[in-house]
Amino acid sequence: MEGLEFSVAKTQFMTLNNPRSDDQPISINGQVITKCEEYKYLGNILHSSGDLEHNIQQSIAAAWLKLREITGVTCDKKMGVKLKGLFYKAIIMAVLMYGSETWAPTQRHVHAIHVVEMKMLR
C-alpha cells in the first residue's frame, strides 16, 4: 500500500465543550481510539473545555523564562532605558503574545496578561 499510513495505536481524539462523558468509544478495525483532554498544536494547547487558561499560562511561563535569560542585558547599568525597552518589546512581549491572534480572550485573561506585564516591567 502506497501513500499515507494510519497508526491506530498512536491516534487519539478530543471533543470540545462536550458535557456528556458517556460517549460511545470510537474504534477502527476493532481497536479502540483513546480520548485525550488536551492537545498541543502549533505551539497552542487545545483543551477539551475550550478554555484558554492553558495557553495563557504557557505563554506567561515562557515569557518569564525569556526574561530570566536576558536579565544580564536588562540589569546592566551601562545600557540605556530606551534600549532595554526595545529588548523587552522585541523579545519578551513577542514570546508573551505569540499565538494570541487565534485567542478569544475574556476580560479576565486580558487582566492576567496585563498583571504579568506590569510585574515584568518592575
Automatic annotation (TrEMBL):
This is Reverse transcriptase.
